[in-house]
Amino acid sequence: MCVSLTFLIIQLLLEGWEKLTRMAPVGLSGPTYKVHQVPEHFHEHFIISGYRHPKSTPFQCILSVFDATNETLNFWTHFLPSWYFLWILRDLWDTLDFKHDSYTWPLLAYMFVCIIFPLASATAHTFNTMSDLARHICFFMDYGALSIFSLGVAIAYRAYCFPSDLRNTWFGHHYTDMALINSVICTIASCQTRFMPPSTLRKVMRLGAFAWPYCYDSIPILYRLFLCNPHECLLQSQFIHARQFVFALLAAFLYASHLPERLNPGRFDIIGHSHQLFHVCSILGTMDQMQAILYDMKARRAELSESSWEYSSVWSTIGVILSVMAVNSLIIAFFSVKLKLIFKKFK
Ligand SMILES: *[C@@H]1O[C@H](CO)[C@@H](O)[C@H](O)[C@H]1NC(C)=O
To answer: C-alpha distances in angstroms, 73 versus 141, 197, 311?
Structure first.
């Protein structure tokens, strides 16, 4: 009895899923399209349906986040986490003295970038079907936000997580300066790739622009995981720092492999394609990273603040982030104008 009831329920759920993924393609924002109905540069590998109109209005774009399109969950899987991180910051605000205690400022900068990067990505996923130009600009925004994120991570790592062996080395003294340079160069490089024809070089450059800052930021953490001194090996954060890498590798694997939709094109158009799973993994990784930073921050307070605290001005934390944000905005504006001129020439 119980078994057959369970089977019945499973069958109903599967049928529901079947219907949901093959639902009538007209939603709040208008019809959705099959891959061959939209221009080629909008095509996504192994995604057959659920495409929005390539010249949607802003209002249609907003409505579409409540529809079943190929981007709906790309939006929610970053929009909700952004609010979640804001909620965490609110919580921390009650227990930490962000206003007066300079020990908390690098954390504040980090929390800020954690809120900004998923929000920028969610916005980009919403409005990228307004036009060709909008699509490029949305990608620029996404790249800019990721570059800011890598800088925020570097500031927090340098402040709370740095292995004591490396703190007074050349690398230790210039770690954040180089992260800043990475951040700006990577915004420029990844934007530039949108002007290149599809090629291996383009792929390598685009991937490198994301992977390099991440790898660079991770050097002190890898050092701590593999070469920690006896005292630092015992820090509570070690395991969470390590687990964060698992999520990052998984995210990279999903991004590059286009799994699972590669195995069954069309089946995962709306729910479960690799880009959504990639979002989820990157957020889980960020949650681990945040937890590990919080652990380190708490556990190492005495040790860090007694040997002259380096972040006693707002400028060195939030100020740096805001300045690079301004620089990135200028870079994006420059590339957008350049694109617009190119588009004009071809009309
Ligand atoms: C979804 O469809 C849009 C066009 O409406 C396309 O630009 C985008 O690449 C697709 N994304 C995914 C993840 O399938």
So the answer is: 19, 29, 39
- Ligand 1 center to 43 CA (angstroms): 7
- pLDDT tens digit string along 53-67? 999 999 999 999 999
Whole-model pTM: value is 0.90
Query: Which has the closest alpha carbon to 92: 314, 236, 282, 291?
Result: 291
279 annotated to a ligand binding site = yes
71: nearest Cα among 115, 112, 27: 27
In three-state secondary structure terms, 60 is helix
**Of all protein residues, whose CA lies closest to atom 4 belonging to ligand 1?**
51
Q: Which residues contact 68 (CB under 8 A, 6 or more apart)?
A: 20, 23, 27, 32, 50, 270
CB atoms within 10 A of CB 203: 13
Q: 300-332, pLDDT tens digit by residue?
A: 999 998 777 889 888 899 999 999 999 999 999
DSSP 38-69: S-GGG--TT--S-BPPTT--HHHHHHHTTS--
Phi, psi of 168 (to 5 degrees): -105, 35
- Is 165:91 a contact under the CB 8 Å cutoff? no
Query: Distance between CA atoms of 206 and 253, rounded to whole angstroms?
Result: 15
Q: Are 1 and 9 in contact (CB under 8 A)?
A: no
The fraction of the chain above a pLDDT of 70, given in percent, is: 94
Q: Is 273 marked as binding a ligand? A: no
